[in-house]
Amino acid sequence: MDITGASDPYVKVSLMCDGRRLKKRKTSTKRNTLNPVYNEAIVFDVPPENIEQISLLIAVMDYDRVGHNEVIGVCRVGNDAECLGRDHWNEMLTYPRKPVAHWHPLVEYQGTTGSSQGGSCNSLKTPPSP
């Protein structure tokens, strides 16, 4: 929250594989609110053979015009997530291409963990631009 008592939140969703961020998307910024509503869809295309190594890191951020944007909190959805994040992931896999909504508690950001070794996610990387 800013010094004014409000916040300018947005959500950043990162497609993760073995602790590495492969792609990211973000929502619009909602100005001056502590209760934002996002009616936005974020879509990543993931080949079925890579789905087991993938997770989503969801970060709620506070936009700051001056300085750095601050992390308000994060949650993870995927096979390597805990309880609710794993259950949500399994439900999304059961009903592909359908929106599946759940509330998730935010936790303090601890940095990415996991191995940074190669793996089979290389096919998901966006080729470098010339």
Automatic annotation (TrEMBL):
GO cellular component assignments: dense core granule; exocytic vesicle; plasma membrane
Q: Which InterPro entries match?
A: C2_dom, C2_domain_sf
Biological process (GO) annotations?
A: calcium-ion regulated exocytosis
The domain of life is Eukaryota
Which residue intervals define the domain C2 in the entry?
A: 1-104
Among the GO molecular function terms of this UniProt record, one is:
calcium ion binding
Family, as annotated:
Belongs to the synaptotagmin family.
PANTHER family per UniProt: SYNAPTOTAGMIN, SYNAPTOTAGMIN-9
Protein's recorded name:
C2 domain-containing protein
Recorded source organism is Mugilogobius chulae
